[in-house]
Amino acid sequence: MRDHRFVFLAGLHRSGTTLLARLLAAHPEVAGISATDVPAREGQHLQDVYPAAKTWGGPGRFGFAPEAHFTEESPLTSAESASALFEAWSPHWDLSRPVLLEKSPPNLLKTRWLQALFPGSAFVVILRHPIAVSLPTSKWRGTRRYDRLLAHWLRCHEIFQRDRPKLERVHVIRYEDLVREPETVLGGVFEFLGVDPIAPSEPVNDQDGRYFQEWQELKRDPRMRLYLDLASLRYERRSRRFGYSLLRPRA
Question: What's 198's domain CATH number?
Answer without folding.
Answer: 3.40.50.300
